[in-house]
Amino acid sequence: MNQKTIKNETGFSGKALQTGTPCSVVCRPSGPDTGIIFKRVDLKGAPCVKLTDAVLSDGGARRSTIGADGWGIQTVEHFLAALWSLEIDNILVEVHGAELPAMDGSAAGFLAELKKAGAEEQPVPRRFVKVPEEETVEEGSSYLKISPADVFSVSYYIDYDIASIRKETFRITPDKESFEKELAPARTFCLKREAEMLLKAGLGQGATLENTLVLDDNGPVGTEFRFPNEPVRHKVLDLLGDLYMLGRPVIGKVEARKSGHKLNAEMVGLLYRKYLKEA
User: Fold this and answer.
1) Is the pTM higher than 0.90?
2) CB pairs under 8 A, 24+ apart, for 159-163?
3) If residue 3 lies in a helix (H) or strand (E), which one and from where to where?
4) Among the options 78, 96, 234, 261, which is catalytic?
5) How would you classify the pairing of strands 10-15 and 2-6?
6) What confidence category does residue 59 fall into, taking pLDDT thresholds of 50, 70 and 90?
7) Tally of domains in the chain
8) What are residue 67's DSSP bridge partners?
9) Is 261 marked active-site?
10) Residue 61: which domain range?
């Protein structure tokens, strides 16, 4: 398989999910082996960071952030999942703002715009991270494990103390088609009892019932599930985007139990140190 970039320039704009501020993005084609580069065009000097240079950035509460030297871009995971599904290896992402737009809280909007831009194959082989031995990160009863395999697959288990989610396992061997149908539309979510606490912590300032599933025991408030198990599908979506912070796809069997952005970031850091840093 060869590397790909987008064929035409594209972009999107809207309100940021966590900060609530307006933000916009322009995506431009990029040459072979240039990688996925984010550029903060609203900052002096328009600083850039390449994904492989940012893998140890924050995997904090409820979103993933990349950056360097005191600046960052929050909530990149849904966009990165869309890039993963389209096998985009090289792209320049110019961001005006400290966060990507929320869109509808899923990857569907990003995917639609990137598909319009088209993909262009480049005359250079793709690079992968094929895990040769089992790798695990864990915290309490939560863990994320990747075992050797010839294809990428995910098994994700969640356990929430709320009737509308409870315990659920979702398994998928994702590709371009299954991602678009089974994962991309799944929206971010929070529990209704957490919403006020998140706002006080400065998170979810741009959240609405249109871009966030606010869940109580009966289900989403003010909307309906797109899938009966939409929350666990969104966790898989987040995981795909977080793993793509390596700037190249992972090949292996992934098993996640109550994992989130923090453990996902720890796994990305582990894989980077073991398989990419000295490469």
Assistant:
1) yes
2) 159/258, 160/191, 160/231, 162/191, 162/215, 162/216, 162/217, 163/217, 163/218
3) strand 2-6
4) 261
5) unpaired
6) very low
7) 1
8) 72
9) yes
10) 2-127
